[in-house]
Amino acid sequence: SVDCSFSRGVCDWKQDADDDFDWNPADRDRGDGYYMAVPAFVGHKKDMGRLKLLLTDLKPKSSYCLIFSYRLAGDKVGKLRVFPANKKNAPVWEKNKGKDEKWRTGKIEIFQGAETTNSVTFESERGKGKTGEIGVDNVILISGQCPED
């Protein structure tokens, strides 16, 4: 497995230059490193911020599972979507609010077919709310199918 988390991960993360705002590091409650977050007050409604995970050296015709922690905290905070590079129009994963403000786990299957997925984009869309944040942490890439819960 490959650790792509932000504080100590080995993966390459890039901010999108063509979006409306950047994701920013935020300190973890436990004080051990940081996660990436978009506070609710950044930008205007429907503005987008994209953070791209560059994937290199994935074997063709292989399955991978991208596992990550996420949190949507606050009323009407917005949406979090995930897009593999070869499916720019349709997100493979989307959440628009949490039942509570707890961290949850998201999983995405990535299949390396003839077309190579060379990146995965985490996209935050600003909602109407003024409090809370959208956060992503503990991003890990494992080979094979996603495990059942």
From TrEMBL:
GO terms for cellular component: membrane. Gene3D superfamilies: 2.60.120.200. InterPro entries: ConA-like_dom_sf (IPR013320), MAM_dom (IPR000998), MAM_domain-containing (IPR051560). Pfam families: MAM (PF00629). Residues 2-148 form the MAM domain. This is EGFL6 protein.
